[in-house]
Design brief:
alpha+beta; 2 helices
């Protein structure tokens, strides 16, 4: 039995297939905590972090390899 991909996760991959790039950045909150924020470029629309991570973990997106430590630390992802 194959596991079905949730619609919200598939939507992230679909946006990347249509030309968007999923981007990640770290934002410092006023409390001093760090928050990971995902968004699409060029639209600038935000993406839910759980959906973004699930799409990456499921292999629906490929890393651009623009991180300091190779593919594992990528900051952007596109559709394969």
């Amino acid at each position: 039995m194959t596991k079905r991909t949730p619609a919200r996760v598939q939507a992230v991959a679909d946006k990347c297939r249509s030309g968007q790039t999923l981007c990640k950045f770290l934002r410092q909150k006023e409390t001093g905590e760090t928050e990971t924020v995902f968004f699409f470029e060029p639209s600038g629309r935000r993406c839910g972090p759980k959906s973004a991570v699930a799409a990456i973990d499921a292999g629906l997106l490929k890393p651009s390899g623009d991180g300091l430590f190779g593919q594992e630390s990528s900051q952007t992802w596109t559709a394969p």
